[in-house]
Amino acid sequence: MSRRRQATKRQIIPDGRFNSVLVGRLINTVMQGGKKSVAQRIVYGAFTALSEKVTDASPVDVLQRAVDNAKPRLEVKPRRVGGATYQVPLEVPSDRQASLAVRWLVTFADSRKGLPMSQALASEILDAYQGQGNAIRKRDEVHKTAQANKAFAHFRW
Length: 157
Prior knowledge:
The chain is mainly alpha-helical.
């Protein structure tokens, strides 16, 4: 445990176009090297592609549902007890759930080769919206690991 002060949570600024905190979080996750305008162009391009593919819902609603589908409810954290390290399943706080889901969407979109990032992000969001894709598979994998280590749940503190 760190002996320094607790890190303060910073307020995430909503994006300019949709006035959504979730879209602002997505832009910040896509951003590399402080190039926010490039990240905005990628995300808004993905939203344009999403609005062409899904006509019955707005892109922000599609993103919200995709993130809700990809959110992990449980995860494992290593705990050192008497010389052994146990993978202890813990419930995930809601803020971390959203962070993990958005991070997984961006990471798996980035790993899709041969596509521009905006198209890959739109495809990954659409897959998660439909309950499939790599982010959903990652969530299921995390849940499966937590379920397998349920015997060590009494080590949580």
